[in-house]
Write a structure and sequence with these properties.
Layout: H1 3-18, H2 24-68
């Protein structure tokens, strides 16, 4: 699932959990699903953050090389 779809599902789960019509067993299943989604999204965001840091680091290194190479 994409992060966008995960967030959308989390919003659906939140709405269902706020509803007083949700049975306790169903609420527990929804809560468990939500926790799983939250962990998955956190992991994906950490991976994206690492990728961005790598890209920024490479960009900064290339600029430093170009600047120091001027004759």
């Amino acid at each position: 699932m994409s992060i966008e779809k995960d967030i959308q599902r989390m919003q659906e789960i939140t709405t269902l959990l706020k509803s007083s019509d949700t049975a306790l067993d169903e609420a527990m299943k929804l809560f468990e699903e939500g926790v799983g989604i939250a962990k998955r999204v956190e992991k994906q965001l950490q991976q994206m953050e690492q990728k961005v840091e790598q890209l920024i680091g490479v960009s900064e290194e290339q600029e430093a090389i170009v600047e120091s190479f001027e004759p």
